[in-house]
Amino acid sequence: MLQTKSFFLPIKKEIIQLNSNLEKMIGAKNPVLYAASKHLFSYGGKRIRPSIILLLAQITSPDKKIKRQHHRLAEITEIIHTASLVHDDVIDNCEIRRGIDTVHNTFNTKIAVLAGDFLFAQSSWYLANLNNLEVVKTISKVIIDFAEGEVRQGSMNFNSTISIEEYIEKSFYKTGTLIACSCKATAILSHCKIHEQNNFYIYGKHLGLAFQIIDDILDIVGDNQVTGKPSSSDLKNGNLTAPLIFALEEKPELYKVIRKENHKNEDINKAIDIIKRTKGIQKSKDLAEEHIQIAISMLNKQIKYNDKRNLMLVSDYILRRFQ
């Protein structure tokens, strides 16, 4: 059995340096903005996205060494991800993130929105300083996708007619786009050929989709200590995810719960109990595995077994978060 945590070992030193650099990079002159931003990075996170970038950089670089630009791209990606979480928490009225109070809960909503905007702006500045137009174009698309994804999700809340195809598209905007574009940008910085860049984009897209699907399963069945945020937030906010969409096919009585916009705790608990008694969770895991297999097939086109082992461990880790 693969030791899923071991993929961090080859880049342990780089991740420690990344954590140190993130706090230095926020550098806001305004003490409130600085405190709000530092609040996020002080408590870290899984660092999955920068880990993928650093591992991919190690493989794709001609000399097998991670370049300075790769390090900076990994930091930029984590700043963008963190900025999106700040805005997500405001929109979803989430009180806990990574086991601590969210920025808007600690400060206020206005400060949280401004802190998120500030982090997006900081990431853009560092991105521009990479002096690589193709990378700038690629990563800039992520911020556009995030905004479009939030609008789409908001317009679909409490919409019980959403299809799995629409859910997958929404999940791409939410998670897939950042991982996909980051993988492509890594390949660009490694001077890979265009078809290789595109293959790594597809790899990242499907890895990201699998990650989001497992996240959505954990929102139903996960432990708050593992996920770092309150469970059932999707249900409470009317955000229909794979487990619920699949469960609705078996248990139409769930429609009554979904269409209520002022959920009580007993409503949520009832819905979770119904979902657990369907095949919704298993079908969602199967869907995540399908996307992992597509991602792996793209790796197989590009990378020899020994080189891709740690990226295979990442795939395994994403699936085993649910177990």
From TrEMBL:
Cite the InterPro entries for this sequence. Isoprenoid_synthase_dom_sf, Polyprenyl_synt, Polyprenyl_synt_CS
MF annotations from Gene Ontology: metal ion binding; prenyltransferase activity
- Segments spanning the bilayer are none
At the top level of its lineage, which domain of life is listed? Eukaryota
Q: Which PROSITE patterns match?
A: POLYPRENYL_SYNTHASE_1, POLYPRENYL_SYNTHASE_2
Q: Does the keyword Metal-binding apply?
A: yes
Per the record, the GO terms for biological process are: isoprenoid biosynthetic process; quinone biosynthetic process
Keywords associated with the record: Chloroplast, Isoprene biosynthesis, Magnesium, Metal-binding, Plastid, Transferase
Question: Which cofactor does this sequence's record say it needs?
Answer: Mg(2+)
Q: Which family does it belong to?
A: Belongs to the FPP/GGPP synthase family.
Recorded protein name is: Prenyl transferase
Please give the organism.
Platysiphonia delicata
> Species lineage, top-down?
Eukaryota, Rhodophyta, Florideophyceae, Rhodymeniophycidae, Ceramiales
